[in-house]
Amino acid sequence: MIIGFFLISLLSLGQAARQSDIVDSLPDQPALKSKWYSGHYNVSNTARQYHYMFVESQGTPSTDPIIYWFDGGPGISSMVGLFSGIGPLFFTHQSLKFAENPYTWNLHANLMFIENPVGVGFSYVPTDKDTFNNDWNVQEDLFSFTQQFFADFPEYLSNPLYLAGNSYGGIYAPFLGYAIHQYNLIANFSTPPKQHYNLKGFIIANGGTDWKYDFLSETTPYTYAAFNIFPESLLQEYLRLGCTIKNPLIFKGWEPVEECIPIINRMAYLHNNGVDIYDLLRMPYKAAGSMENKDQGFNTYQATTQTTPNALYLADYLNRKDVREALHIPDYVPDYPVNSQNIQVLRNFQWHVEGSGFIQEILAKYGLYKIVHIFGDTDGQTTLFGVRQWIKSTQWKTTSEWTPWINLAGNMGGYTQTYENVYTLLTMRAVGHSAVYIALPQIQDIVFKFIRGASSPVDLIEI
Ligand SMILES: *[C@@H]1O[C@H](CO)[C@@H](O)[C@H](O)[C@H]1NC(C)=O
Ligand SMILES: *[C@@H]1O[C@H](CO)[C@@H](O)[C@H](O)[C@H]1NC(C)=O
What we know:
It comes from Halteria grandinella. Keywords: Carboxypeptidase, Glycoprotein, Hydrolase, Protease, Signal. Helices cover about 30% and strands about 15% of the residues. The protein is an alpha/beta fold. The longest helix is centred in the middle third of the chain and has 20 residues, at about 170-190. The N and C termini lie far apart (about 70 Å). One 2-acetamido-2-deoxy-beta-D-glucopyranose (NAG) binds near residues 181, 188, 196 and 368.
């Protein structure tokens, strides 16, 4: 009897840590096809807490990669990713009922969704002061989470680890990756060597890189002229006078030079009157923020996802008492926000002038990590032209030329070019900022090829 008892307690040791986070089921939704966890971790030795959801692979959890997924904002919850295309269940149009998502990455990957920064969604901040964040404290918090998670789930330490994100999430991912990389450098040189994290690569979608070129920057007018929103003459005038545009959110106190003001005002007038900056080819679409108040808010995801499932009513579902209970959300955590974005976290975010390009350059230099940057080419917020200018500034060597690729429908899907053998820019034609939520089957195919280590994540159209 005593021996038997001993065995049982030893057996349960390996997975004892977070048993209480297991999600048995989601009320009124299809049964879960793999093990889900939902819970909280305090981060960076403070009373601030991340809410995470970890969805084990439907394939082979013990060997499939782990992919972290980040939505952008800053301030948009990664529950959007979990429930609108990346996770195994997604919303069917205009209803609170989920359907099984055949395009989920979860068929061959363990998925990690962290509501980031703290204060977003069901993540928790004890004081208002904690809604102020910047890239560096977010990096610290995410790394703190990562260390605690793998301490509780050591069986996952050897799985390949990928970090993925859309838009601003494309900044969180390399920042966290840089922290893991630095940790690994130290771990590898310790005696005895410490366990390293098996970081393999990054999947970035319409991500921010360098603020000189991205997100309302000096190069933005080129794109708006190319899309016939600005007349050519206005662009020429802008160039002739040597005007620049900088984002005042990032470059505090920046103001245009006097003679450029009329030009910049004219540009603002031309694009502020009905152009959807997230997708220059689509009509803006007024969307509901919740079931009760259908005219509230303007959901940028919905703006370009009229025919695909969406996270529009996520708050209505997640705020149900039985759903909170199923996800183990403590009572002290406030409601999940309408539109999935914490506006206070957004407003209080301290943008840095560095962007994330310099980190991507360092990570590429080591040659240890593969990076794919998927880019919807009709994005007018973070522009393809701008990102290409940033890439040009890195002086990376092209290792595979700008080549068209063929999509699942048999059409030309966009272009791809690889630099330094590790950084692949992959454009997607006629989709915008939320490409990752629109072209679901194609994105799934790209992700699976990428994590399998295919020589290219798309089929090339060779000469
Ligand atoms: C973790 O966070 C909670 C909620 O803020 C707090 O009550 C608790 O004291 C924190 N625990 C630690 C060890 O800091
Ligand atoms: C640390 O060591 C592991 C195992 O040898 C290796 O795969 C990894 O690339 C190393 N990491 C760094 C940053 O050198």
